[in-house]
Amino acid sequence: MARAHPGQRIALYFEDEARFGQKGRSCHRWWLRGQRPTGPVDQRYTFAYVFAAVEPASGRDFCLVLPVVSTAAMNEFLRRFAATLPEDEHALMVLDGAGWHTSHELVVPPNVTLLRLPPYSPELNPVERVWLYMRERHLSHRLHEGYTAIVDAVCDAWRKLTPQRLRSLCGYPWIGQISG
After folding, report:
1. Sheet of 89-95: strands edge to edge?
2. In angstroms, rounded to a whole number, what is the distance separating the alpha carbons of residues 98 and 96?
């Protein structure tokens, strides 16, 4: 990789998408033994999709909230992500094999290289832990009035993620061995 991009720092990013919305999921709550806790339940189906890339070594991140998940949405995410990279940096982006990641219509910017994870291995993508953290700490047991409220809640939850928190959530020990 370094030979293919001489003079550039190679940054290892992990990317994933998640759906957040009105049909949320509840999480664990402390409650009286033998009783179920009460909580709000929303039966509506409005969602927003969060595209995110995190560099576990530094905690740097890029996030984009979109109304759909598709090849066009992934193209927009990659275009905006690539625009944030410094001139002397090339991003190696690890992602799963979703259809919009493997489409022939996907346009990968020249300062980004995609590396696909093996099938059925979400445990290898540390961004999955970010989604779990956001759901448990910021987005569970909430009712959202509509799409705008969902986007606001997701953006607020993402802004609360500090680089230190992202390093903590995404810093798998084996990542340091391959990126060091």
Report:
1. 60-66, 47-55, 9-21, 89-95, 112-116
2. 6
The pair phi, psi for residue 26, each rounded to 5°, is -85, 160
* Ranges of residues in the chain whose predicted pLDDT is under 50: none
Separation of alpha carbons 70 and 79, rounded Å: 14
Instruction: Please state the separation of Cα 55 from the chain's center in Å.
Output: 11
The tens digit of pLDDT for each residue in 83-106 reads 999 999 999 999 999 999 999 999
Domains of the chain (ranges; CATH) run: 9-25+40-174 (3.30.420.10)
Enter the tokens of residue 92: 């190696």
- What is the pTM assigned to this prediction? 0.85
